[in-house]
Amino acid sequence: MSKESSVYPAVDPSQLISNQAFQGKRVIVTGASRGIGEDVAFTFARAGASIVLVARTESQVDAVESRILEQVPNAQILKAAVVVMDPAKVEVAVTRAADPYDWWNTLEINLRGVFNVVRYALPHLEKSHGRIIAITSISSQLRVPFASDYCVSKHALTRFMEFVPIEHPKVLAFPVHPGAILTELSKASGYPAELFNDTVGLASAYILHLAAGNADWLNGRYSSACWDITELERDWKEQALEKGALVNKLYLPQ
Length: 254
Prior knowledge:
Elements: H1 14-18, E1 26-30, H2 35-46, E2 50-55, H3 58-71, E3 77-81, H4 100-128, E4 131-135, H5 148-167, E5 172-177, H6 184-187, H7 200-211, E6 223-224, H8 229-235, H9 237-243
Parallel strand pairs: 1-2, 2-3, 4-5, 5-6
Helix pairs in contact: 2-7, 4-5
């Protein structure tokens, strides 16, 4: 299956933006202060959605609002400065891997933070048959030395998204790997910058594609913005549905 690194025709958001496909719909974007979250908010605003920006401080959400309004002057934006987790105040560790507080804080952010948002959004999403699109990572399926906190947190998040439609059938949930994007977080990871060669625009376009109901068969299933969705549906959809693939499970080859 082809790997995409930037927006390609099947997920090109131009038509959804031109048709204002999300007019009258409200989209909550957490982690909206920068990087993927900011670009996702901008893309939905261009498509006509009313945006709720959630970040840690008022200055962060104010700055993002200003940048969106420069490009989308009529955008309807609500702002919420919310800390979605309660991080422990610890001293800077000599190494991240050795600091148990830092390890747990990663789970607080990546799992508990999402849980808190989903918990309070579910009653509204059930009424509107809404969608949750959670940013997971390919690391959820890997075992990266000295990154167990991140890998475990994203694995648990992906699993959590599998449970949402099981426990709340009126709500669709999509755990999405956005690609290897050079964000502030990836810059601080210590890995070479050349590994992060996917565009944030691709992630936003793919998320918009899912939110528009164009791939609801992926409900409760892991997918990557970098997978060519046309090839995925042509070559793998039937097998994935038949065999219950793209979910976390133990597997022994026959």
